[in-house]
Amino acid sequence: MNMKNTKKIISKILIYFVLILGVLFCLVPLYWMIRSSLMNTVEVFMMPPRWIPSKFMWENYQEVFDTLPFGKYFLNSFIVTGGCVVGTMLTSSICAYGLARIKWRGRNVVFACIISSMMLPFAVTLIPTFLMWRTIGITDSFIPLIVPAWFGGGAFYIFLLRQFYLGIPKDFDEAAYLDGASHIQIFTKIILPITKPALAVVGMFAFLNSWNDFLGPLVYLNSEKKYTVALGLQLFTGSYRGEWNLMMAAACLVLAPVVVVFAIGQKYLVEGVTMSGVKG
Question: Do 17 and 83 share a domain, yes or no?
Answer without folding.
Answer: no
